[in-house]
Amino acid sequence: MTDRHHLLVHGGTFAAVGDGGDISGVRGGGSSPDGLFVRDARHLSRWQLTVDGAVPEALSPVADGDTARCVLVPRGGRQEPPACTLFREQAVGDGSFVESLRVTSNRPVPTTVRLAVTADADFTDQFELRSDYRTYTKTGATRRREILDDGVEFTYQRAEWRSCTTVTADPAPDGVEETGTGARRLVWTLELEPHGTAELTLRVMARPHGDKRARRVPSSPAALNQKLLSLEGEFVEGIAFPTGWPELAAACARGLADLASLQVPATGPDGEELRVPAAGAPWFLTLLGRDALLTSLFALPYRPQLAAATLPALAATQATETGAASVAQPGKIVHEVRHGELAHFGQVPYGRYYGSVDATPLFLVLLGAYVEHTGDLPLARRLEPHARAAIGWMLDHGGLTSRGYLVYRADQGGLANQNWKDSPGAICGADGARAGGPVMAAGAQGYAYDALRRTAWVARTVWEDETYAALLEQAAADLRDRFQRDFWMPDRTFPALALDGEGRQVDALASDAGHLLWSGLLDKEYGELVGRRLLEPDFFSGWGVRTLAAGQAAYHPLSYHRGSVWPHDNALITLGLARYGLHDEARAVAHGLVDAATATGHRLPEVLAGYGRETHGEPVPYPHACVREARSAAAPLALLTAVGGA
């Protein structure tokens, strides 16, 4: 057995299982947590199958897909062929996990097989499983196990917080045994006829704290898989994919199917139930403002319902007052929403965390683009107070009026960087030195410019407020003039990555310049220079544009934001190149990304390593990337918008 994890995702639920379908109970580290997770909590921490007291061998290990299927046999040798074969199938639903087991005898005589599944639920918060190895005190927390007629129930309680996981089986186990570790072992003694077969179905229902919905666990993995396939089909149906570029068509279809499985529940300003794109699995299966907004923008021409849900969901979580721990300020759009125990008790700041300088302008960009594309005037009127509050934040707390730019400061309890490159050290000079003091990131200024212009259009055409529209247009024009004066580096004919707290240029050559093309912030002459520069070999790896150009001291091909290749970053760049009429360059980036997707089963991961195609004929994976990520899933749709079927 290897330590690989295979992800099964459905809405706000995911499971990470090994090659043989087991959950080992590993506490964390690495690229994927191990277990069944619902609303940021691990509801199965152990799920281990044994045959006659031993872990079977994976004859046909789990392959990637929406259902985990594998074939197992008891361990043995050539002179001792296995007495039976086990066919294991697993799937996840909304708060549920279902497994079917078929045991077939390979002997011509009656055979007895002792089957057992060891289960446990530790209810660990997902933040405890991160590789930073932080620990959190949980005073008064208790766990209970209750034996049921057909299984076992695990319960966790800490003050008012209560979670539950119920495991049931059909047929019921012959017994439920204690293991000495807190886990419980469900045991069956199967009497198999010559070459006979026995079947078992195990169902797991997770009830996270605060979830009062009446739900039923589906009857089988096949039933769950059919439901997910139907949902995926709805997302793909009716879209005209390019017939002359089948690889792009396949990437679009795969991306839409992934977006279908990444929809998580949210509520709107009036309490209405919504489904919005989660950021990605495994670590970010929740609403992240920036991620949901960019995903919805990419998908807007094809699936506008994503934007129609994302906008009111973010309006409902918009900050109305100042909060130091959450970095909240009136009018600011949320960065991250979490539902776990640690967020509930304030041990992490991410229950509603506002550490993003760019979610607020992107909210306005999406609102303007959505109204322009759909003509949905009622939503534009309904969200007018939220949009005006967002503009107010940009001008006041955001820094446009006082500093001339959107500004963020490192948050000691949360994120040091609050633009899309949010890892420590991501905003740096060419020599790798980190920017100090309040930071003015280039890309965020482009989003602010676009937000001002689009909101001016909505104000004039929908809200009928000409004075407000004119004020916003003037603010946008002033921002554009300031930016080209302060950020442009004449000696490098390229914009700085940021300005530091003293207003000095942070001079790393970075892909964020392509976002300025997407937002239209640069004059045509500057835009064309930037666009062509992004296609030079130090930037363009052959699979996409690197986050930092190679050859700089700060560059590292396996750094999260200092040399890697991000599909969503490249989707924005491609849209920007097309906007400035650089169609050959746009096609080059699009073909690189589509080739990368083709090499990885038509699915683009969150991020790729920055190694060049001329020395590595296959894209090199980034070791800790989200396998399913909403922005990457939607990126092929942005490529389709930018270059069509070329």
List the keywords.
alpha+beta; eight-stranded antiparallel sheet; globular; four-stranded antiparallel sheet; single chain; 30% helix; 646 residues
Low-confidence stretches: none
In which range does the helix fraction lie?
A: 25-40%
Gross morphology is globular
Radius of gyration: 26 Å
Strand order of the largest sheet: 6-7-8-9-16-13-12-11
How is the biggest beta sheet arranged? Answer: 8 strands, antiparallel
- Work out the number of β strands: 27
DSSP helical segment count: 15
The fraction of residues in strands falls at: 15-25%
State the separation between the terminal residues, measured CA to CA. 44 Å
Nearest-integer average pLDDT? 95
Structural class: alpha+beta
Please give a structural write-up:
Residues 435-600 form the Mannosylglycerate hydrolase MGH1-like glycoside hydrolase domain. InterPro entries: 6-hairpin_glycosidase_sf, 6hp_glycosidase-like_sf, GDE_N_bis, MGH1-like_GH. One of its GO terms (biological process) is carbohydrate metabolic process. It comes from Streptomyces canus. By secondary structure, the protein is an alpha+beta fold. The longest helix is centred in the last third of the chain and has 21 residues, at 466-486. The protein is globular, with a radius of gyration of 26 Å. 54% of the residues are buried. The model has no long low-confidence stretch (mean pLDDT 95).
